[in-house]
Specification:
single chain; alpha/beta; Transcription Regulator spoIIAA; 3 helices
């Protein structure tokens, strides 16, 4: 199950598993997020393609609004998923 915690300074912290079952809840939160937005991935155990799709959707929306999206503190196995998909060329991953 995915948990999304709102923190100060425009930071959303994701933890748990981000799969297709969690997309609707994640879209409800990320779809309302304003930029600049930082998503902390430190507590994320797993992300499926459906979860990556929500992140990309949020990135595109914020970019169209002239805002920035950053992904931070991704565990190595999560960072690798973004890298293998070539998304580290599009997204800011720190």
């Amino acid at each position: 199950m995915l948990k999304i915690e709102e923190r100060e300074g425009g930071v959303l912290a994701l933890s748990g598993r981000f799969d297709a079952a969690q997309v609707e809840a994640a879209q409800a939160t990320l779809g309302q997020a304003t930029g600049p937005l930082t998503i902390n991935l430190a507590g994320l155990d797993y992300i499926a393609s459906a979860g990556i799709g929500v992140v990309l959707q949020t990135f595109k929306r914020l970019k169209a609004e002239g805002q920035e999206l950053r992904l931070v503190e991704a565990p190595p196995h999560i960072r690798n998923i973004f890298h293998y998909a070539g998304l580290d060329q599009i997204l800011t991953i720190e």
